[in-house]
Every structure is written in structure tokens, then in C-alpha cells.
Amino acid sequence: MAGTVLVALALGYGTYARRRMPFALLLAALVAVLLPQPTAALGSIASWVALYALGVFRSARWAWIGFSVAAVVNTALLLGSAEYERFAAPIVAVISVLVQVTVATLVPTLIGLWIGGRRRYERALIARAEDLARERDQRTRLAVSEERTRIAREMHDIVSHGLTVMITLSEGAAAQALAGAATAPDAMRRVADTGRASLAEMRRLLGLLRDPAAPAELIPQPADADIDRLIAGFRDAGLPLHFTRVGAPLEGPSIPLAAYRIIQEALTNVLRHAPRSPRVDVRLENAADEIVIAVENEADPEPPEATGAGRGLIGMRERAALLGGSIDAGPRLRGGWGVLAVLRKEEA
User: Fold this and answer.
1) CA angle 70-74-76, nearest 5°?
2) pLDDT in tens, 296-306
3) Domain Signal transduction histidine kinase subgroup 3 dimerisation and phosphoacceptor spans what residues (predicted)?
4) CATH label of the domain that carries residue 250
5) Do the domain assignments include residue 187?
6) Secondary structure (3-state) at 340
7) Which of 89, 198, 249, 312 is the most exposed place for a label (fewest CB within 10 A)?
């Protein structure tokens, strides 16, 4: 009696811990099946629970291994029992054994595999949904980051260029007024025109950010002809510009815009960091498969104090990268500064 109680307690604990060690429970149950009644009955019940648990909490491979072990033990036990000696034909005994073994081992194994398969399938669906959610969040963050970068680039181009030109023109107008020159009012008018143009672009951009669903005011993007007007504006600001074109006019929406912004930023930097440079050269070459932009300035004899965080150069590199190109910027051997941009036509 005490042995039966101990076996019952052991099988009870194994049943409680079936999630963690179903195969150990199966082995203990099969050992109990070999003992006299009522311990054998407890072992049979525990073996059903163990076979079910293997299918639910382990893999199909472990479930079929457990089924094989239980089937062999139960078959040997039944064929060796005195109950089957009464059958006249051995085939009848074998069929009876197979039926009982099927009920005792195959049924709980199949039930465990079915329920375990559904649970594993549900877990796979949940994991897939979580992966898709993470990918969606990552794409959203990436899109937001790219949009913020684009907005920052556009804001920098608008504000930096406009304010730099206005400051330079205002300083020139003040110097002309002190000297009593008659051109001071004209310089101030150019300051006002530059401010109005920059303000209009800023309002358009802020309007799009405030209400993306509202119809945007369609303002033409800079085209090839606007590059000449851009050069003229910097000449009015006082830069000694020498502009050279090679090849046909730029075509398409993206290449002229990128070329315009790159030249604009490069000349704005010259106006900010080398306003008294004796010579500034701009070369725009439309080659067979690429656009080459070169902006070089001679050294300023009295350069102002260096300011800025390099955002303009970052913006130029980003614009060039969008067209599969590159930017090379830095000091030149003979003094001064240079920017060389290469834009690929096939990426436009």
C-alpha cells in the first residue's frame, strides 16, 4: 500500500510538471504499468497524459518517439499476459493487442499532435504579425526620418541662401549710402526682392507641412534657365562670377533642380565664407551620361570668422546621392575652396 501511494505521488508530480518533462513522465508511467494493480492502472492513465503532453508541449518528433516506446512496452505487456492464452488463434490475439495498443497510445498521441499543432500554428501567426508590425513601424520611422531630412534640406536651402544674399546686399547698400552713391536704393530693392522670394518659398513649404491634404500651390521648380538667373543674382550680390556652360541645356525635373540647388549652396557658402574672393568660377558640363558641376573660388584675403555646422555640404551630398552621384568639397592646392559634383543621368 505504501508503495502504491509513493508511485501515485510521483506520477501526480510528473503530471503536474508535464509541460517541462513530459518524456520523463512517460517513462515513469510505463514503469508503473509493469507493476501490479492498482499501480498499473495509474501508470496507464499517466502514460496517456504524457503522450498527450509530448504532442502539445514538444515537437512531433518527440511525440512519435514517445508513441513508439509506449507501443512497444504495451504490446509486450499484453502479449505476455495470461489473458491472451485463451485465444485459439494467435492472429486473433495479435488483433486484440493492436486494438488496445492503438486506443492506449495512438489516440492520445494524435490528440496531442492536433492540439499542439494548432498552438504552434497560432504562435507562428502571432510571431509573424509581430514581425510585420515591427517592420511597419521601422518603415514608418524611416519614412519620417527621410521626410524630416528632406524638409531640413529644403529649409536650409531657402533660409541660408536668402538670408546670406540679403545680408551681403544690405552691407553693400550701407557702404554705398555712406559713400553717397546713387546705387544704394537699388541695392535695397534687391534686398526686398530676395526677402519676398524667400518668404514666398517658406510660406509654401510651411503650408504643405501644416495641412498635407490641402491642395498645394503649384510653383514651378527651378529649371535650366533659372540657373542663369541664379548666377546673375549672385553677381548682383557682389561675387566676381565667371560662369561656363558646356553641352546642351539640362532636361527633366530632377537634374536641373539638383544642379540649381548645388550651385546655389556652393555660391552661398562662398558669399558667407569668402565674400571678398577675387574670382569665383562656376562650370556646368552636360556630358553624355553625367552632369559635372565645378565651383571654385580663390582665397579671400580677409576671410570672416568661420561659422556654420556643415549642413549645406550634407544637403549637397544627399542631393547628389539621390541621383547616384557624389560631391567632392575641400580646399584647393593653390588656395581657396572648391566643390565638384557629379550627377548620373541614368538615376534621374
Assistant:
1) 120
2) 999 888 777 66
3) 147-212
4) 3.30.565.10
5) no
6) strand
7) 89
Which residue numbers in the chain have pLDDT < 70?
1-5, 7-15, 17-18, 30, 34, 36, 39, 41, 78-94, 153, 156-161, 169, 171-173, 175-184, 187, 203-220, 305-310, 347-348
Residue 114 to residue 120: CA distance in whole angstroms: 10
Domain that holds residue 266: 222-348
Out of 133, 152, 178, a domain closes at 133
Please say whether the beta carbons of 216 and 203 come within 8 A. Answer: no
Question: CA 318, CA 151: separation in Å to the nearest integer?
Answer: 12
Going by the DSSP 8-state scheme, the letter that residue 37 receives in this structure is: T
Amino acid in position 34: L
Which grid coordinates are listed for 104?
Answer: 492506449
* Residue 295 three-state SS: strand
pTM for this entry: 0.52
Indicate the SS3 state at residue 143.
helix
CB burial of 201-239 (b: ≥16 within 10 Å; e: otherwise) equals beeeeeeeeeeeeeeeeeeeebbbebbeebbebbebbbb
